[in-house]
Each structure stands twice: as C-alpha cells, then as structure tokens.
Amino acid sequence: MYPTGTVTFLFTDLEESSRLWEEFPEAMKAALARHDAILRTGIEANRGIVVKKTGDGLHAVFDLPADALQAALDCQKALLAHSWESTGPLRVRMGLHTGQAQLREGDYYGPAVNRAARVMSVAAGGQVLLSMATTELVRDQLPDGLSLVDLGRHRLRSLDRQERLFQFEHPELPADFPPLKSNRTAPNNLPLQLSSFIGREKESTQLRELLSPDSPGEDQPTSAGRNRLITLTGPGGTGKSRLSMQVAGEIFETFPDGIWLIELAPLADPELVVQAVADPLGIREQPARPLVDLLVAYLRPLKILLILDNCEHLIDACARLAEALLHGCPQLHILASSREALGIAGERAFRVQSLSLPAEAGSLAEKDVAEYDAIRLFVARATDVKNDFELTDHNAIAVSQICRRLDGIPLAIELAAARIKVLSPQQILDRLDDRFRLLTGGSRTALPRQRTLQALIDWSYDLLTESECVLLRRLSVFSGGWTMEAAETVTGIAPLEPYDILDLLEQLGNKSLISAEEGELGMRYRMLESIRQYAQEKLAQSGEADKIRDRHLHFFVGQTQQAAEAMMALHNADWVERLAEDLDNHRAARSWALETDIPSALGLMAGLTPRGGRIFPVMEAFNYLETAIKLAESQSQFNNPEASAENRRLLGLALATASNLCLVLGNDKVHEYASQAAAIAREQDDVPTLVMALTLAASAEGSSGDIDAARRHYQELNPLLANLGQIWIKAVAMVTLGNLRIQPNAAEIIKAWDDWELGMLLFRRSGDIWGLALGHNMAGGASFILNDPDKAQYHAEHALELYDELGDTHMANGPRSMLANLARQHGDLDRATLLYKEIITGWRNVGQYGAMARCLECLAFIGRVRASESEDDSRALWLARSATLLGSAEIIRREYDSPMNVLERPEYEEEFAKIRQAAGEKEFHKAWKMGQAMLPDQAIDFIKEF
Asked: Of 2, 512, 613, 818, which has the fewest beta carbons less than 10 angstroms from its beta carbon?
C-alpha cells in the first residue's frame, strides 16, 4: 500500500547511460536488468515501494526517512560489489527528500516529488545527496559508519528557493566527487523566486527541448535549424516572465557561459534597449564604436542565453537588436517574452495559454478539481496568506468558478487568492463582476502594472493604435466569441470600415488581446473575459455603447431569421450548430432587446422550435419568450388586429413557438398559446404558423383525451398541408399527427401512418437527423398506445440513438421514458428502475415536473410489485417507500401545476388503491405525509436507494 502524508522520496539515475548504451548496446540490456534488480531488492528490503522507472533510474517512496537512507546505502554497496565485466562499473547517483505529496492513481505529484528529483540531478555517479528536510529527520539515527557532510546551499533546477544539501559518506563507498552540477556554478543574474512555481509541466518540457542545442527547427534537419529565438507570447498576466525564468533555471548546463535576464518593462525609450542588454554583461561604450558592435563582439564566442523580458512596448527596437545578435553570435540563444512576436526570420513563437481549468459543471468536489493548475495556484497562494486554508468539497465549486471567471490567468488568480485573508471563496466569486476594484493589492515590489488587474490591461491598451482601441472596445459587445462576418457587420462603421476589420483583428491577435481558433464552421474569435469587461468599460465611456448593442442585436435577429428559413426548407443543417455556437451572443441580444426593441425580442426566438431545444435550454427559452410575449401584448403596436401586420405576424409566430415549448416542458398552456397563435395566423393569412399551431393543438388535445377537438384541428390541417411550401413544418406536422392519438377507426389509423411515412421520407431526403428522431419518438408513443410493444420498443430505441448522436439530452428523455415504461410493462423491474432513476434528474433540470412526478409514480408502482414478492419486513418497507413516492409526486404536481393526462390516470388510480390497501390506512398516511414534505431534490435523493 502506497504511503501518504509526509513521505521520503528516493530518486536514482545511471550516470553516462547514453554513452554506455552506445558502446555496449547488447551488454547493457542484461546490465540494466541487473541494475534494476539490485535497486529494487535494496528498496523493498527496507520497506520501500518502487513507484515507477524513470529512464535508466527508479523513483521510490518510503514511510520513514531512515528506511530510505538505509536503502540508498544498501543499494550503493551492492552496486559497488557487483562485477560489471561487460560494461565496466555502473555508477548511480541518488537523491533523497522528505515532504508532503499528493497520491493519485498510483503516482505522486507535487513540489516534494520535483525537489527530490532535482536533488538527485545535481549529484555525480555513486554519490548520495540528502535535502535539509531529510537530514534533520535522520541525523540522530544514522546507520553504523555513515556520516553526513554539509555541501552548503545550492540553487537546483528551479528558482523558487535554494536547498542546503548533504552528502553521506561511508568507509566502504567512494567519497571524492566533482563539484555539484548546481546553478550556482554558472554565471547568471536570475532572481531568486520567493514563491513556488505551480504547473506548466508540459510547457516547461517543451521549452527545454526547444532550447536544447540539438533541437531542430520546424521542418528542418538538426544540423541546419536551431530554435535560437523563442518568443513567449500571450495576454498579460499569463506568466510568460515566470515561465521563462523557471525554464532558464532548469537548463544551466546547456549554457556554460551564462544566462542573463534583461528586464525591459521599466524602459520607455527604445534607444536604451541595447544599453539594457550591455549593462549586466559589464560592457561599456567606447568612442567611435557603436555599442551594438561591442555587444556582438563580446557575445560571438559565447554559448549564452539572453532573456529579453517584456518586449511589447519596445517591439521594433527589440527586433532589430535580436536580429543583429543572432546574425553575429552563432552560439547565442534568445528567450523573449512579449504580447506579440518580434516578427523576424528564424523566430519561433510559443503561445503561453491560461492555466488548465476544470470543465464547467453544476457540482464539483475537491477530488475533481485539485489536479488542475489554476486550482493548484489558487490554493498555494491562498495558503501563503492564510495558512489554514484548504480546498474542500464545500468550497471547491466556488474556487473552480473563480478560476474560470478569471480565465485561468495566473496574475488574476494570485490577486484573487490574496483576498482570502478577509473573504471566503464564495464572497470573492460574488464580487468578480467588479473585478477591477477587487483584484488589487499585489506585491509592493512588483512592477506597477502587476499590482492590479486594471493596471495590467491598461498597459496593453495604451500600446494600441486608435483604430485598434475602437475595434477592441466595440468587440466587447460580443459574448462567447464571434465570426468575421459578425465583426464586420457590427463594428464596421465610422471611423472604421468593414474592410478594415480583418487587418485590425490580426493586429489585436498579434498583441494577444484576442485569439482565433478554427472549428468545423470556420474561424472564430474570442476575448478573455477580463479583457472583455475592461473593453466594455471603455465602450461605455466612448458614448457609442447603445449604437453598437443595437447593431449586435439586429445582426443576431437576422441570423435567427436566416436560420429559420433555411431549416424550414430542410437544408443548411449546420444552422443549428451555428446558432448553438452563438448561444451567449443570443442571450446578450435578448437582454438588450427586452429593454429596447420588443419586435426584435420576439424575432430572436420565434420560429426556431421545435428544433430549438437543441440550440437553447428549453426552460430558459420558454421563460424568455413568455416575458417577451407579455411585453408585446401590453403595447398597442401588437395587441389588436389593426396593429402593424409584421408585428402581429411576429406575435403569432412567438405564440406558436411558446406553445411548442410548453408541449416539450409538459406545461398545460400548450392549448392556450396554440389557440391564440392560430387566431392571429388566420387573421394574417399566415399558413405556416397556422399549421404549426393546429399541429400543436391537435397533439395536446389528443394527449388530454379531447378526441373531438383534436379531430377538428386535424380536419382543418389536411387541406393546408397539401400546398404548404415550408417542407420542414409539413414534415413535422405529418410525423406528429402520426402519433395516432386521434384514432377513431382503422381507416384514420392507416391515413395517419401514411402521413408519418411521408414526413419521414422528407426528413431522410434532406438528411435531417433531428426530424427522423422526432418521427421515431412520435411513432413509439403511438405504438405504445395501440398496444404494440415490439414496435414501440423499435421506434424508441431508434429515437434514443439519434438524439444521443445529436447530443440532444432533453429530447432523449422522451424515448428513455418510453423504454422504462416498456420494461416495467414486461416485468423487467430492474431495468425499469434504473431508467426511471436516470431520467428523473433530466426532467427536473429542464423544469418538466409533470414528467418527474410520473417517474416517482412509476417507481411507486414497482415498489408495490416488489412488496408482493417479499417477506413481511421487506414488504412493509417497500409499501412505505411506494406511499412516500406517491405523496411526493402528488405535491409536485400540485405545486407545479402539472396534472396527469388522460392516459396516465387510470393506472394511477388502480395502483394507488392497491398500495393504500396493502400498506394499511395508518402506515400509508404516515408515509404519504413524509413524501408531501419533500422538495423535488429530496425526492431524487430518496430514490437513490430504491
């Protein structure tokens, strides 16, 4: 079993393994196997565990540091005693360090693991080094003959702090070794970092490989291409400077002539860039000789790394100097950091992304988020200022949302974590809408722009041209990203023109203020949320916010109308994906429309359903549309037949759309909205809307048992469908009417199936998968009503498969419910129970409480059957559970106005009577009352053990 808490790590590595493999390729296979066996034996004999192999070494862990020390001694003795005839002696370096580490899936993570590896990395073959932490714990329990020698403080392959190292000596082992390979042996001016470096393991590895002298350039052979200029790019605060210094601290051996940091942020004059590089190297100006020539002459023979930090405000001067140095100094490497690349030949831009973040979710626990770099950074910095802070299941969601809201930007996260002294994570999260006031108070020794988030973005904004400033603040109107077409249409007005936008977008991208990514639908642009909020403030100050928001609204109204027309014609299926991609923009447009433009508010949603459930969350869409309808009906331009024809048409279409959403949600306003929509559609001679409204009314009335009303709507629909040009509405009507909930005789059943087949044919020809899923869903319901379970099963399974393929989790609840009902009908109670428990949360999430109540009722019916098959004690428990679920279902239906339909009630009344009789009046009433006291979420928790 792997130890946890405070543990001791032992890292080993074989010295000169590359040379040995090259000289003795065959013999090394056997030698390395013997090497591994010796080490493993020594480790396991001292109660250690080998965690994994690391190249030609091992990583082991021990509960007790004394055991680790004894294991290292035993291993070195055994290695020395073995005869290595085929390869010569194998010399193994070792390092020990004690500390806290995280154990996940059989491996250890955290700073203690990294430090142990770095202690080992500076040792020579045959040498064993101990950190100060391990030394303090073993000093009084050393094995016989073993002593410890203080080697002083050394900077390891990191810059967060120096480490005092000790070498152990034993009479049976060598004692003379070369100087440690620590960073203090190479000339440099890198500052000691006072805080730990969190995350970025992947980026650090990539940069170390790129800076290796043998690293080839892209698409170039090793001998020709070297990555001699690497520029770290990215938005302010992403940690470019910290990453460059961390990597530099890990590659000292690569640059024996030194690593020099040139801090350019304090400079304002481009003429001082050359001087800034010359000063730390000790180069002074000479009469009649340019300083840059002196610099080139000095650096020409040296294998050296220059770190040009914060080049963005001096980009031209930095580019000129870098080009001159690279041409004149063949062994020189430059690692630059800048918001944008220098733009010279041979440069390799390396974009530094935000820290890794957990996916957005409604519920997260500590174990779900602890491994992400952004969370790790928040916790580390919060612990620095409040040493008892811990990440827990209670605060994990708030911490995760803080890091997401701050886009994983390290500086912003550090500023937020500093507030943990006085605010809880939830209080910090609640204040992030005013982040520029909250995120202040950085280190007094930091650059001024790194002390507050506002100052950080001011620094970038002040470097923009006037046209770039105009575009950036106008782009802030977009939420969740935008396309080129959207940017040109919304922002391309004086002083900009639409044809300016492409070049300006490229320039803002170069300066790391926006990003571009190519998806299935083409290029899409985004802005980090902190930059967007900053730009929104600038937009408000400019006085043109209302104008730009109006243009944004009208663009997305137009997009909605184009999408509706395309979908009605059963072509351009990618419109669904396009609208879904712009969901956040539609939300922003809706909010503005409700304040300023009710016709546009209706136009943003009307006509997009029933397929709209794939685009917008159904409950959200319904609540929005109902609000827009109420506002429209309160205004004279909508509320009478003499009003504007276009406004009346929009209102009718919105009412039909609301009716459809009610049908999906199980809301009993289906018929009310459908009737109002049909009346306006007849008045306006709007046949497509009338067909939609009549189809919805017929479907709702068929479900409620009003067969005569459903037949009247069906009869009115028939002649309308024959000449309807909107193929999609026609197909939806046909497959919906094929549900056969209006079947007075066999002839109409056959006609309904014929309609269904024709609707499905239209969907197949156009490749409309959603329409096919709808058709199978409707046919499944019809077959169930007609008591044809095999056919119902066939259609429900097909519908579910298609909805799952589309990712339409809401509509997938329908066929899942059908499959649960079929399983219960056939006596497969285990499968039925599992399905009901799966779908009840889905119904709750979209506010379809009638369907949720039905799941509880069906589980209660299953409980009654379980009771009839059980012994006395279990029988009473099952009946009590069933009565509890019936009580909970009844209160949910009453509180959320979700009565049963005509098909559900007969079975309910029969089962209710059986459960009540079997349980007995007193016990039934007791359990019933308990169920009535439950909230919906409590009812879901109750069935987990069902």
From this structure: 2
